[in-house]
Amino acid sequence: MPEPYSQEDAVAPAGAGGRIELATTDTGTVESPPAPAPPPDGPAAKPRGLWADAWHELRRNPVFVVSALMIVFLVLIAIWPRLITDGNPLTCDLARSQQGSAPGHPFGFDTQGCDVYTRTVYGARASVTVGVCATAGAALLGSLLGGLAGFFGGWTDSLFSRVADVFFGIPIILGGLVFLSVVTSDTVWPVVGFIVLLGWPQISRIARGSVITAKQNDYVQAARALGAGNLRMLLRHVAPNAVAPVIVVAMIALGTYIALEATLSFLGVGLRPPTVSWGIDISNAAPQIRNAPHMLLWPAGALSITVLAFIMLGDAVRDALDPKLR
Amino acid sequence: MGRYVIRRLLQMIPVFIGSTFLIFVMVYALGDPVAALFGEKAPDPATAAQIRHDLYLDQPIWKQYLHYMGQIFQGDFGTAFNGQPVTELMGEAFPVTLRLTLVAVVIEIAVGITLGVVSGLRRGRSVDSTVLMITLIVISVPTFVTGYVLQYLFGVEWGIVRPSVSADATFGELLLPGTVLALVSLAYVTRLSRTSIAENVRADYVRTAVAKGLPRHRVIVRHLLRNSLIPVVTFIGTDIGVLMGGAIVTERIFNIHGVGFQLYQGVLRNNSPTVVGFVTVLVIVFLLANLLVDLCYAVLDPRIRYA
Amino acid sequence: MATMSPAPAEPDVPLLEVRDLEVEFRTRDGVAKAVDRVSFSVGAGETLAVLGESGSGKSVTAQAVMGILDSPPGFVTGGQVLFRGADLLTAGAEERRRVRGARMAMIFQDALSALNPVLTVGAQLAEMFRVHEGRSRKESRAKAVELMERVRIPAARTRVNDYPHQFSGGMRQRIMIAMALALEPDLIIADEPTTALDVTVQAQVMDLLAELQREYRMGLVLITHDLGVVADVADRIAVMYAGRIMETAPVHDLYKNPAHPYTRGLLDSIPRLDRKGHELYAVKGLPPNLMAIPPGCPFHPRCPRVRDICLADRPEPAPLTGADGRELPGRTSACHFRKDELHA
């Protein structure tokens, strides 16, 4: 995109040999396609920041709006499942085992005779908790270690990067099988801890890379030349510019972490009853797919839609933050 | 080139030690293997102590680790729960999982790259949006759900394939499980090659190739693809290790007696030699795959120098 | 001239004639008229410079002529591109492809990005012979070395196996020139061929290009924003502004006696040794947004000579007449006051 012309550009003083550059923006072989018309909302031609620009872009993106609404809804029912159900996911009636839908029980019953609708609604809590907490943990740990490695370089970088490689080198599902089979807790925390433990290297690589890129910016070099201290440089100049890629990767990771939790629960090493989890329900329902497909359909559908929402959100945010892809 | 490979191999050593030690510690925490050996009966303390001593279990953990690694490098991976040497189990399990992974990688490359190229070249058209939407859905539905659904549809409902795989695990039988294993990676390969193609299709060198009067297929295959597939190759290389590890879910659904199956048995029965042995080999595979990717990368992109 | 070219062209049919070419860019924000009724012609052995600021439509014109416009968003919406009398715009895709590279070649501005980074320069040069002439691998390679020697790349025999990034900027641009020359085309379009180079290298590359053009008697369309490049090598100049041609003239006439206020502004903004100490003239204002080109003459908001008619009526390029009333050959100007300007 051509930058806005300025008077200085158009009449730039002579270069060597009495030659004149008519405009200084002609750097590509592609004749710059037309300058975009100023946005309709008034004289707002003044440049927006990266985030404001991204937000402007996002608000107009239906993918973002839909996925954001879905996520808001999910979070709401994860916190207050009673908003949309009166049932208790642990109140089951074996007499109604695997029955189809009935009045007041639109999704039918599972093998234990529990209401599938209620269990599906309550399942959101475990998934969202694991997803959000694991992502927050991995993002914090990853960006801290990756950021420091990228900022200081040298032996700090070598050490941190090798440590990241160690955790990266363990296949994640196998690792889960080994690590989590030891644990006998019925809370979500072991799973969260495990995902953070094996998930942070991915984020730290991204954070390291973007800190190194940000560090090389001219204005950061200038700040260093002016004698800014390390901490000030890191907080004021480097971090704000390195944070966007981390946020994007973390958002997409959130979706995959939720799927990972379900997979681990399926293998019997993730969440355990009485925690209500889509993964557990899917795992119980899968062998019964012939007799009672509804048992599989609803929790699997809810899980897939949740993962989809987070991945779509991450995608939309990445596109908005990366003008190159527009 | 040779020096670069050696340097990379040396860099792999600490990572290898770290990963395996981590696994070793975790397995150590799994519980007392001697107690597991005796099942429900309480072992005679003297016998237990003797076994402990024989198995090096009375040593500090780092010594146990060193001892274990020493044995591994002599080809001795210990004994599995059923009395078979672990190496024998590996001999049975790894070929099966390798075949499964191979099927998956071939599908991933053939279908993923084709879809990616087609949608990348038609960016913004309906083909492109459809492919994109499908990849998103495929990524979102967990493998074990797709696995059961496809098994049910192909194996039970339509009766096209046998729902579970025999002990031989031939390539034909592995076609469906391979597809299930490949699906998520396939979606990523599609998206990655699409983005890469769409970015490169406007590149100046592609314009040059058109201006040279080259036929369209030559512009695409020789100029566009060669450049666009560099990141895709990187992804697929790293993915080989991920697929071998992830095969555990697929193997469980289709009852395939591969690496995942043996590992699962090992974990269930607290058999540390099986678990550590298999994971160690997988870590080596993963690290070698990464090295291979780096080498491929340098071959594909002459701008990369072996520094 | 007709004896040298394979197609027996009549002497009065120019090598390339562009008539009323129109190109639009259709984007999300609207439609931009990047090229609007542009006409010019180039003869064999002649050099036409197309001069304009960035965004004036000169590169888009070149791409439309070559048939390599990115489409979408770019669309040719009207006009003719006559190559030896045959309209390329109505020709089939296969026919156009055969012309590209073989009879009409293009040199790009930034050779580093215009050359394929993962293929050796030898492979990229040899490709021309393999595809267009069906020569063997070995033959094509020998021809590639020969070409590199022609454009004076030292140690061509060994460097043929190097990749583009292993060459200096000037050497890379020589390779681009070699690639364009490979099949001895009738016409070369050079889009800012020296802009990306160091000043010292610029002259060498430009001289080489001019020399080879004379030797092969090729037509050359030189697209540039650099008035200095133009003076030395061009025979004629077409000045573009906002997607339109403002003035065409033989190079010396244009420098001596411009007939469009825009051209005059450009010339006056060149610093000259004999006017040292004087303040430089600057064309006031900015080039227009192509989605909202002013009505009438597109230059009117910046024109020192603007009158009411300029706001309402769009001036078309029209021939100029001298003081004696006779038409001046090769001169046109798209200004209502072209006479006043010419005789100012």
Layout of secondary structure:
The complex is a heterotrimer of chains A (326), B (307) and C (344).
Chain A (H helix, E strand, L loop, with lengths): L6 H4 L39 H10 L2 H18 L36 H37 L1 H15 L3 H9 L8 H27 L2 H8 L4 H37 L11 H8 L7 H29 L5
Helix pairs in contact in A: 2-11, 3-4, 3-11, 4-5, 4-7, 4-9, 4-11, 5-7, 6-7, 7-9, 8-9, 9-10, 9-11, 10-11
Chain B lengths: L1 H28 L3 H6 L6 H10 L6 H13 L12 H36 L4 H15 L2 H15 L17 H26 L3 H8 L4 H38 L5 H10 L3 H29 L7
Chain C lengths: L15 E12 L2 E13 L4 E5 L6 H9 L7 E10 L2 E2 L5 H7 L4 E4 L3 H4 L6 H13 L3 H14 L5 H4 L9 H13 L5 E5 L7 H18 L2 E6 L2 H7 L2 E6 L2 E7 H6 L4 H8 L39 H5 L5 E4 L5 E7 L4 H5 L2
Parallel strand pairs in C: 3-8, 3-9, 6-7, 7-8
Antiparallel strand pairs in C: 1-2, 1-4, 4-5, 9-10, 10-12, 11-12
Helix pairs in contact in C: 4-5, 7-8
Greatest contact pair? A-B, 44 and 49 residues
Number of strands of chain B: 0
> What fold name stands as the CATH topology of the largest domain in chain C?
Rossmann fold
Helical segment tally of chain C? 13
Described by its quaternary structure, the protein is heterotrimer
Q: Distance N terminus to C terminus of chain C?
A: 38 Å
How many strands in all of chain C?
A: 12
Using the 3D structure, state the CATH architecture of the largest domain in chain B: Orthogonal Bundle
Provide the CATH top-level class of the largest domain in chain B. Answer: Mainly Alpha
Order of helices and strands of chain B: HHHHHHHHHHHH
Number of domains of chain B: 2
Residues in helices of chain C, as a percent range: 25-40%
The overall pLDDT of chain C, averaged over residues, is 86
Bulk shape of chain B: flat
| Tally of individual helices of chain B | 12
Taking all Cα atoms into account, the compactness measure Rg of chain B is 24 Å
| Helix content class of chain B | over 70%
What would you note in describing this structure?
The complex is a heterotrimer of chains A (about 325), B (about 300) and C (about 350). Chain A has about 325 residues and is an all-alpha fold. Chain A contains eleven helices and no strands. The N and C termini of chain A lie close together (about 10 Å). Chain B folds into two domains: about 1-70, no CATH class; about 95-305, MetI-like fold (Orthogonal Bundle), CATH 1.10.3720. The termini of chain B are close together. The model of chain B has no long low-confidence stretch (mean pLDDT about 85). Chain B has helices spanning about 1-30, 35-40, 45-55, 60-75, 85-120, 125-140, 145-155, 175-200, 205-210, 215-255, 260-270, 270-300. Chain B is flat and about 85 Å long. Chain B is built from twelve helices and no strands. With about 350 residues, chain C is of the alpha/beta class. Chain C folds into two domains: about 15-235, Rossmann fold, CATH 3.40.50.300; about 240-340, no CATH class. Chain C has helices spanning about 60-65, 95-100, 110-115, 120-135, 135-150, 155-160, 170-180, 200-215, 225-235, 250-255, 260-270, 310, 340, and strands at about 15-25, 30-40, 45-50, 75-85, 85, 105, 185-190, 220-225, 235-240, 245-250, 320, 325-335. In chain C, α4 crosses α5 and α7 runs parallel beside α8 (about 200-215). The chains are: A mainly alpha (about 325), B mainly alpha (about 300), C alpha/beta (about 350). At the A-B interface, α5, α6, α9 and α11 of A face α1, α6, α7, α10 and α11 of B. Chain A: It is found in: Cell membrane. Chain A: This is ABC transporter permease. Chain A: It comes from Streptomyces meridianus. Chain A: Pfam families: BPD_transp_1, OppC_N.
